[in-house]
Write a structure and sequence with these properties.
Structural class: alpha/beta
Distance between the termini: 21 Å
Order of helices and strands: HEHEEEHEHEHEHEHEHHHEH
Strand order of the largest sheet: 1-2-5-6-7-8-9-10
Number of strands: 10
Strand content: 15-25%
CATH topology: TIM Barrel
Helix content: 40-55%
Shape: globular
Number of domains: 1
Length: about 325
């Protein structure tokens, strides 16, 4: 079932979450261990992230260095197929611009279509760790809007090979990302919303937000979207803070702010256990308010660990 149809058919807020593919060399059982504890809450879809390649340098003879491309978390397409087979739940693979040509993107979408995967989340993706700015593939997409456009063209039976006749259209439901506190590269929230509206106008059907900890930011974001003429469902994304490391890591990495009440509580924490308790309690209150305000789904970023999300879901769903 398409995500947009699941939202339209439900008379209550859905539960959904995102997982990371295991690191290369790890078995799929490590993935299932993060999913199984959350199945009692009947998730309607599970997102699977995609990670672009990284470059390392290997020493060769005579001291030469060879630049080698590696992927530390491969397997998004296979994992989506495994999830749908094991749990009979819709899997939503992330598609990214970085590191892929248009032809590679088309081939990936064809594979997903053959597997019966109806949903994709179209993202630009991040810059490589060694690069300051995002650098697209020479024959790839620079912006997520271009990726959305390619997917919609395939839904209309238009493939890169112009002479292809009687091509069978795909039928993907396309989701895109939104940023309640704006994308860190955008000039301001208004310009960011213009980019978001372009993706919706091209055919994207729903929005999943970056994590946030202040619900007022989300509600203001929804209001601004509606004022801009964006009518697509907007799914709030939440990430419970669970470790002392998260206190600095999450704001710095994801360019988000922590409300003063939350930061005051976290500053008193002496251990990861203390942080986990604060994070779960904050997540419960966030989720309750979002449900009360009619959020179509509450989407949790698990980062491969389900403990905190399970505690929140147990109290709310």
């Amino acid at each position: 079932m398409k995500v947009i149809d699941a939202i339209k058919e439900s008379d209550k807020t859905l539960f959904s979450f995102e997982i990371l593919p295991p690191l290369k060399g790890k078995g799929i059982d490590t993935l299932y261990a993060g999913i199984d504890p959350l199945m009692e809450f009947k998730p309607r879809f599970i997102n699977v992230t995609y990670h672009r390649e990284e470059f390392i340098y290997k020493k060769r003879e005579k001291g030469y260095l060879e630049k080698v491309s590696i992927r530390k978390r491969p397997g998004t397409v296979g994992i989506c197929a495994a999830i749908m087979n094991r749990y009979d739940i819709e899997a939503v693979p992330h598609l990214i611009c970085g590191g892929f040509s248009r032809e590679e993107t088309e081939n990936a979408l064809i594979d997903l279509n053959f597997l019966g995967i109806d949903n994709v989340l179209a993202l630009r993706g991040d810059a490589r760790k060694a690069e300051t700015n995002f650098v697209p593939d020479d024959s790839g997409h620079t912006y997520a809007s271009e990726l959305v456009e390619q997917i919609i063209h395939m839904n209309q039976g238009q493939f890169l090979e112009q002479e292809m006749k009687d091509a069978t259209p795909t039928n993907f439901c396309v989701g895109v990302a939104g940023y309640p506190e704006k994308h860190f590269e955008a000039m301001n929230l208004k310009s960011d919303l213009k980019n978001l509206k372009r993706k919706i106008d091209l055919g994207a059907e729903y929005i999943v937000t970056q994590m946030f900890f202040d619900n007022n930011k989300f509600f203001e974001f929804v209001d601004r979207c509606r004022d801009m003429g964006i009518e697509a469902p907007i799914i709030p994304g939440l990430k419970p803070i669970t470790t002392l490391k998260h206190i600095d890591f999450l704001p710095k990495t994801f360019h988000i702010n922590l409300p003063e009440d939350l930061s005051d509580a976290l500053e008193k924490c002496k251990s990861n256990e203390d942080v986990l308790q604060v994070g779960v309690e904050w997540g419960i209150q966030q989720t309750k308010e979002l449900i009360a305000k009619g959020a179509p789904s509450v989407h949790f970023y698990t980062m491969g660990k389900s403990n905190a999300v399970k505690q929140i879901a147990s109290a709310v769903f």
